[in-house]
Amino acid sequence: MESTGQTATPLMTEEAVGEAFVHALADRNVGRLQACLHPDVLLRALVPPGFQESEGLEAVIARLESWFGAAESIELLKKDIYHVSNRLHIRYRFGEHYSDGDSEIIEQDAYCYVHQGQIATIDVLCSGHLPMPGNAAVDIHHYDAGELGCGSGLPQEFRRQIGAVPIGSVLEVVARDPAAKEDLPSLARLLGHQVLSVKTSPDGTTVVAVQRGR
After folding, report:
1. I want to staple 107 with a disulfide (CB 3.0 to 4.6 A). Which of 20, 27, 93, 207 is the partner?
2. What's the rounded Cα separation, in Å, for the pair 116 and 29?
3. What is the chain's mean pLDDT, rounded?
4. DSSP letters along 50-93, please?
């Protein structure tokens, strides 16, 4: 057989694919991300708003852009890439910097199957967008829910109150409904905020301190 003078491009090792994926994600380079991902890639993610799933190259790229597109710049703070049996584990921590001067930190663990040099499935566990340690002093805001309960409008009012404080600030909610001790922290985490403390007084009053995420 006559040689054409061309040789096939060798496939990257799975670790190299993981490395390329992390840097492409931090740089938000769509072309390099596409090269890392299989055309039929499946993404399943557990993020603070809840479970998300996307299938296909275009849908997965759009999902990743929705997570990181708002930041003005992204700084790669830490990465670890290694195998857990036949799955590639990619852990990365980003510092996200915004045009208004705010900064946040986010960490994700991705467990991937790699097929012929491209990531075919990604299962992601995400910390959510959290205030960057070392930022300016945190403002504390207070909200007394009075007799409002979890079955009578407190969840809706909490959403409104936490949405009114600046990102990174703390909202202390005083509630008299016994269910608030369990329900408010769960709601706060589901919305992507960080629960700092839950305290119950002898009189049954519960104080929940929540730091607002993005």
Report:
1. 93
2. 21
3. 88
4. EEEEEESHHHHHHHHHHHHTT-SEEEEEEEEEEEETTEEEEEEE
Residue type, 32: R
Residues 6+ apart with CB under 8 A from 21: 33, 36, 37, 90, 119
Is 68 part of a structural domain of the chain? yes
Contact in structure between 170 and 141 (CB atoms under 8 Å)? yes
Indicate the residue among 72, 99, 131 that finishes a domain. 131
pLDDT at 43 over 50: yes
Q: What is the pLDDT of residue 134?
A: 62
Q: Which CATH number does the domain housing residue 82 bear?
A: 3.10.450.50
Per DSSP, the three-state class of 147 is: coil
pLDDT band of 135, cuts 50, 70, 90: low
CA distances (Å), origin 66, targets 91, 192, 208: 19, 15, 30
Encoded tokens for 54: 């996307």
- Verify that 62 and 35 share a domain, yes or no: yes
